[in-house]
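Appendix B. Extra example for self-study. Work through it before the problem class; the solution is given directly after the inputs so you can check yourself.
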Amino acid sequence: MIRNLQRSLPGVPWVAPAVLLLLTLTIYPLIYSVKVSLTGPAGFSLAHYARLVQDRFFLQALTQTLLYTAVALSIEFVLGFALALLIDSLAHGRGFFRAGLLAPMLLPPVVVAVIWRLIYNPQFGVLNGMLRGFGVNTSALTWTSGEGSALASVILVDVWEWTPFLFLLLSAGLQALPQEPLEAARLDGASAWQMFRDIVLPMLKPVIVLAILLRAMDLLRIFDQIFILTQGGPGFATETVSLYIYRTAFRFFNFGYAAAMSFLGLALTVAFARSLMKVMRVAR
Amino acid sequence: MRAAVKYALALVALAVAVAPVYWLVTISIKHDIDQFAVPPLWFRFQPTARHYVEIFGDGNLARSLWNSTFVASVSTMLAMLLGVPAAYGLERLRWPQDWSRKIGFWILSTRMLPPIVTIVPLFLMLRGIGLLNSRLGLILIYTTFNLPFVVWMMQGFFHEVPRELEEAAMMDGDSRMGALVRVVLPVTKPGLAATAVFCLIVAWNEFLFALILTQTSASTTLPVAIASRVTQYEIKWGAMSAAGVVAMVPVLVFAGMAQRYLVRGLSLGGVKG
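Solution. Structure tokens for the complete assembly:
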């Protein structure tokens, strides 16, 4: 029988070890997590899910995560696209600029956080230092440690770190565009804007969808930088879903509730990805 | 004239991207007294190596550096060892209907799972079998992380190899495995190297799992060791920056090595955990 299997499915022994590892360390934990989320003190219970709807800290973390994602993604997309077009149009030094512009996204997130601590620190940071050098009174500029400015400050860090990602994908997309339609349009006297709107944008759409999708999925799960820069504070000002789950599980040791939250987060991510795919398909 | 404006804009963007990194490096080689001068000292200061001497003299940090190196390289080797045959099997061997596409897609989809979803059960599992605060536990997790990526990357590289190559080798009496090792892998060497480099970067940079699964100073990795210093009340800026530079340099070197494959590798999360 094993011999028969070997003959009809020769690929199985090649793939089996990888699949087994993934089943053990991805799918099994997932199922286990469903179980934990559905277990109360007295056996099966939906209490963890019921609590989600009333937990205003969770709702605030969720709102902030969505806000963070929307704002960071919009800025990163526009900047990344503009940079891709700019660098693509240069006659010399494209490789040089590309390499330098990619640096922020390659750094370990911890190092990014260290760098921005050095920049944002109200007393010792280089940002306020430069402003003071220009004679600005910086006593009110507290950046990540101010309740009102913390969220915007961490978004700015995200923009610095991840605009290169959109730049990278979009500029690869631009380089792969066929040149003939552009040449033809140029000969027909089309303006740069017309060419961009009617030729470049439609042809680039698959890359745009991919880039937005990948970045959005990462943004929705944002953890590292915020954890190190602000720990979700001051107060609750920069708390995100991932941080709140972390705190629930590993500070308050409520694993069931943490699991329930993570599934809601997962459902939202999937729903978001699907609707985006649909919208982009209709828009074509 | 328009060209000049374009280059000026490109230079401004470049400066914004690079200046913060440069600032980190300067703080790591400045004497304490120069670190917070107003206006800030960008170029003219007396460099010193004392922060680097200090961090390498600190046993905990040196150990976390070793832990990071060990965990990243072993997990990369494991992911390649499991992932390369899987990619080859899916790409080259006979499967009923579109099984190979379906399996490949399923493997990739496990990579899309937010880590926060599996971290609670993985924490409980590892605690159950006594692998909490061990490098082995982290190695297993990072291998799982990188495996889908290896399969996906290597499938693409194998696809570009003409089938005639290995068929010729098998005519000459090589087994499938023999043909893979002696003929196909040497042709895909740049792809193999690039894939391994991206796995190394992912494992080296990873923070969340290391934070939760390794909490003792004997087992923790460099990112967590640095983060614990950042969040302490009294921060030693010079030492912290020096540690940051130490964490950053290998990644930049690796990325430079894999430059040709950056788009392919980075688009599917070749850097982010």
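Self-check: Chain B has a mean pLDDT of 87. If your reasoning did not lead you there, revisit section 3.
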